[in-house]
């Protein structure tokens, strides 16, 4: 497996595995993360996988860079290039209430694509999305890719407040805001599920490498599942 490292902080290094964003590369990074977690264990304080990189944070007081890189090299030397398991478990299904009351940009996305609201919902929910990375906020999963006709640029002026659970589109990606925060994505619906809960054993519902499918639901089911309007 080809990779190179870059010192990106006093106690962090970033492993670079490529330049182009694609599922195969992301899966290689996931396999590398698993191998390094097994090999280095508590020597690693944190690992953050992204589209093409893997950031490692280590204990500067108890470890040194040369030893760490040597062990990383050993751990990755025998890692296969071909995935033996393309995804983590099954497909994660997320119910979504697609509606202007929960997704105020739904009709604008439809108008831009020359589609009806119902066609946007059908096309968006028909796809199986891949979790490329977690970032921006805890539990914020970057999913791709939306059908070409639904690709929509980010808003020129971000909103100051986007409710937790809101589903959006930005360019070719789609994502759910796990927490209330500012945001510039085009909002098309909302899920009643909690995407991030620090009290859970695994706080983030979604992890890099998983696959996701959205299931359209009506207003009554959305409210019955605890959704807020």
Characteristics:
seven-stranded mixed β-sheet; single chain; four-stranded antiparallel β-sheet; alpha+beta; 13 strands; 229 residues; 5 helices
Can you walk me through this structure?
The chain has 229 residues and is α+β, with helices and mostly antiparallel strands. The protein is built from five helices and 13 strands. The chain has helices at 23-40, 65-77, 106-113, 117-126, 219-224, and strands at residues 4-9, 12-16, 44-49, 53-58, 91-96, 129-134, 141-144, 159-162, 166-170, 173-176, 181-183, 186-190, 211-216. Strand 9 and strand 10 form a beta hairpin. The mean pLDDT is 92.
Instruction: Please give the largest β-sheet.
Output: 7 strands, mixed
Q: Quick one: how many beta strands?
A: 13
Total of DSSP H or I helical runs spanning 4+ residues: 5
Backbone structural class: alpha+beta
CA gyration radius, whole angstroms: 19 Å
Quaternary structure classification: single chain
Beta-strand fraction estimate:
25-35%
Q: If strands are numbered along the chain, what order do they take across the biggest sheet?
A: 5-13-6-7-10-9-12
Distance between the termini: 48 Å
Helix and strand run: EEHEEHEHHEEEEEEEEH
In terms of topology, how is this protein built?
Layout: E1 4-9, E2 12-16, H1 23-40, E3 44-49, E4 53-58, H2 65-77, E5 91-96, H3 106-113, H4 117-126, E6 129-134, E7 141-144, E8 159-162, E9 166-170, E10 173-176, E11 181-183, E12 186-190, E13 211-216, H5 219-224
Parallel strand pairs: 5-13
Antiparallel strand pairs: 1-2, 2-4, 3-4, 6-7, 6-13, 7-10, 8-11, 9-10, 9-12
Helix pairs in contact: 1-2
């Amino acid at each position: 497996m080809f990779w190179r490292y870059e010192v990106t902080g006093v106690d962090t290094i970033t492993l670079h595995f490529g330049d182009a964003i694609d599922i195969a590369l992301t899966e290689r990074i996931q396999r590398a993360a698993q191998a390094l977690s097994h090999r280095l264990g508590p020597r690693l304080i944190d690992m953050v996988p992204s589209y093409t990189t893997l950031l490692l944070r280590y204990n500067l007081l108890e470890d040194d860079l040369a030893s760490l890189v040597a062990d990383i090299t050993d751990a990755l030397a025998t890692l296969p290039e071909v995935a033996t398991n393309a995804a983590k478990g099954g497909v994660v299904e997320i119910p979504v209430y697609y509606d202007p009351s929960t997704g105020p940009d739904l009709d604008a996305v439809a108008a831009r694509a020359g589609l009806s609201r119902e066609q946007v919902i059908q096309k968006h929910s028909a796809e199986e999305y891949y979790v490329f990375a977690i970032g921006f906020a805890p539990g914020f999963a970057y999913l791709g890719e939306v059908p070409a006709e639904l690709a929509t640029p980010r808003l020129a002026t971000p909103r100051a407040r986007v409710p937790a659970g809101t589903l959006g589109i930005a360019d070719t990606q789609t994502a759910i805001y796990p927490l209330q925060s500012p945001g510039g994505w085009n909002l098309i619906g909302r899920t009643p599920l909690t995407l991030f809960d620090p009290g859970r054993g695994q706080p983030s519902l979604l992890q890099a490498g998983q696959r996701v499918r959205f299931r359209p639901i009506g207003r009554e089911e959305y409210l019955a599942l605890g959704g807020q309007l």
